[in-house]
């Protein structure tokens, strides 16, 4: 393809391309282990262009974390809309839980989510991660009307499933692990009760 026949991308499209490349790179290597030149290579742009778009690696990582949290919020809103409008808090939480399975299948996003927690010692990242996690908690409260104890249980179960999926002992490509099978069976029983 000659340079004259290439399709030109808008700045927004190029920014989206860089953000997708960043999610992929951060998922693999975390915040500390990812270099902006690697993200640039994956996106097919120069490293200075990545910096021009996002400012710093820190800001790009925060943008990737926002992408993850936006996706979780989108999934929860869709799951709640699909549930009965008159659902009890318990039924609404179950609907959100079924939706969370979609997020767990999006492996790169869940890995960035976990890397976000690990990078929270950096004050700018930590402040942002804590604020976005709090926003997810408040969204669960808003969508379900559940009491704090049930929201805590829901969030704790979600984090357990996120960690187990990251370890590949839960999900469609799970590596067999008896302890994980036992926990997953117990979670299923609790959901059915």
Automatic annotation (TrEMBL):
Q: Which residues bind DNA?
A: 35-54
Keywords on this record?
A: DNA-binding
Q: Please list the residue ranges annotated as the HTH tetR-type domain.
A: 12-72
Stated name of the protein:
TetR/AcrR family transcriptional regulator
